[in-house]
Amino acid sequence: MPRKSAAELSLAVPPPLPTRSDIVAPPGLIEPVRLRFVELVNAVHHEHFTDADVPLLVEYATACHLARQAAQAIQRDGAVIKSRASAWLVVQEKSLRAMSALAMRLRLCPQGRLSAAQARKPSSRHMVYQSWSGDDR
Q1: Torsion over CA of 122, 43, 24 and 63, rounded to 10 degrees?
Q2: Which of 74, 69, 125 has the alpha carbon at shortest distance from 95?
Q3: Which domain does 59 fall in, by range?
């Protein structure tokens, strides 16, 4: 088989991940939270989540929505209003903290996807560092 040119390789598009039709957003979610839920489920491999993850996914999507709302309010009104910190700062802080914790539990962040056994394996790739000399200033 002949080798592909760089132009041919740049046009290669990976196939889309199969979507999960069996994990659906529960009824009663507000539209921005429902959309974030669907984005999350469709952004990962179809076997990544199980039905047991649905409550955590709802909470993660809700925290994302609240963090976005808080960021918009802070941008619009400022972080300080009449010499006092905006109440939206607390909402943003708590939402981002919840997102961080839930991302680990849902294995959305790199640390959550890496198992302890994988972390102990030595890397097959070796990092090469170029030494720095003081003459490059």
Answers
A1: 90
A2: 69
A3: 18-114
Structurally, the chain folds into a number of domains equal to 1
- Residue 122 within a domain: no
Each residue's pLDDT expressed in tens, for the chain with a length of 137 residues: 677 777 776 666 666 655 556 889 999 999 999 999 999 999 888 888 999 999 999 999 999 999 999 999 999 999 999 999 999 999 999 999 999 999 999 999 887 777 667 666 666 565 566 666 666 55
Residue 1 lies in a domain: no
Question: Helix 87-105 crosses helix 54-77 at what angle (to 10 degrees)?
Answer: 150
Range list of β-strands (E), 1-137? 80-81, 84-85
Q: How many residues does the chain have?
A: 137
